[in-house]
Specification:
Keywords: Membrane, Transmembrane, Transmembrane helix. One of its GO terms (molecular function) is catalytic activity. This is EAL domain-containing protein. It comes from Qipengyuania oceanensis. The chain has 288 residues and is of the alpha/beta class. Helices cover 48% and strands 19% of the residues. It contains 11 helices and 10 strands. It has an 8-stranded mixed beta barrel with strand order 1-2-4-5-6-7-8-9, surrounded by 4 helices. The longest helix is centred in the first third of the chain and has 36 residues. The protein is globular and about 50 Å long. 32% of the residues are buried. The model has no long low-confidence stretch (mean pLDDT 91). Bound molecules: ligand C2E and magnesium ion (MG) (3 copies). The site of one magnesium ion has 2 residues, from loops.
Length: 288
């Protein structure tokens, strides 16, 4: 009897592994097809100047509108795309859509995009990005690239060169999820980030006791010391927002301001606040 149970357990194990493999395979096939069919769409999260309360830009967040799986979030498909060597193509597709969307916004609004460590390892990345900026006539100074501390595990000299070449093009480079990685303070201070984004795991502590506030406060004063402006992510309520405002000038984002929305919803929002790009009057041909 015991033997039979063991055998069953073995079969159960095998078949759950099998179904996991099958799911993964479907994902991989679906992802490849989805890129070809353009099923990946940019969503946008508002970024606010906390001092004035004004909208200053958006962070693009990728979504997969899959016929088989529904709306899939980036935490699921980005790692698979990275492993399959598809992240470059996928990212390019999303960035091109985001450029098109952002060109319909008021020109002072910025666009932030997340870039994977795999892309940062590509020595041609900044060239490829420059080509996209030119082809789509998007002003580099409106673009902010977000990279995470996990990029810094690798060849830090190469990362430094990449940051410099992006900044030479006029693109801004931010450190995302600041505080969650393993970057040493000396590494951080040796890289000329334009901005530090404090991870929401720290920000959320501001809704509780004040030991949480101490950490965020320390991160803000460290950023001050490095002359790097700050964005706080994960602002979920008024209490967090008020606590952040006492810590200094900064930008912020989070569900308090609404969930990420698609390009259409963003345009509607901007139309209401008068923050769409001025329509360029079509030339009639009679002028001059
Ligand atoms: P991230 O860059 O740190 O983006 C913030 C994530 O936190 C987003 O999740 C966003 O929806 C969520 N978030 C924002 N405000 C709040 C809040 O107030 N509370 C809570 N609980 N969550 C909040 P999302 O969209 O699932 O993205 C997850 C991660 O996926 C991103 O983290 C980013 O690292 C990565 N990602 C997103 N789009 C892309 C992309 O196009 N390329 C690459 N390489 N990575 C991407
Ligand atoms: Mg980000
Ligand atoms: Mg982040
Ligand atoms: Mg994050």
């Amino acid at each position: 009897h015991a033997k039979k149970q063991g055998k069953n357990r073995f079969f159960w194990f095998e078949s759950s592994m099998e179904s996991e493999l099958r799911f993964r395979n479907e994902m991989i096939q679906g992802l490849r097809r989805g890129i070809e069919k353009g099923e990946f769409v940019p969503f946008y999260e508002q970024q606010i100047d906390l001092e004035t309360g004004k909208l200053v830009g958006f962070e693009m967040l990728a979504r997969w509108n899959s016929p088989d799986f529904g709306i899939v979030g980036p935490d699921i498909f980005i790692p698979i795309a990275e492993e399959m060597g598809l992240i470059g193509d996928l990212s390019e597709q999303l960035i091109v859509q985001a450029f098109t969307d952002a060109k319909s916004w008021a020109p002072e609004l910025t666009l932030s995009v997340n870039i994977s460590p795999v892309q940062m390892r590509d020595p041609w990345f900044s060239q490829k990005l420059l080509k996209l900026l030119i082809e789509h006539n998007f002003p580099p100074h409106r673009l902010e690239i977000e990279i995470t501390e996990s990029c810094l595990h690798e060849n830090i000299g190469m990362v430094r060169t990449m940051i410099a070449s992006l900044q030479n093009q006029g693109v801004h480079v931010s450190l995302d999820d600041f505080g969650t990685g393993y970057a040493s303070l000396s590494q951080l201070s040796s890289l000329p980030f334009d901005r530090l984004k404090i991870d929401r795991s720290f920000v959320k502590e501001l809704s509780g006791s004040n030991s949480g506030a101490k950490i965020v406060q320390a991160m803000v004063s460290m950023s001050d010391g490095l002359h790097m402006p700050v964005t706080a992510e994960g602002i979920e309520d008024e209490k967090i927002l008020e606590a952040l405002k006492t810590l200094g000038k900064m930008k912020g984002q989070g569900y308090h301001y609404g969930l990420p929305e698609n390009g259409e919803a963003v345009r509607k929002r901007l139309a209401e606040s008068g923050q769409l790009a001025q329509e360029v009057p079509a030339r009639t041909g009679t002028a001059e």
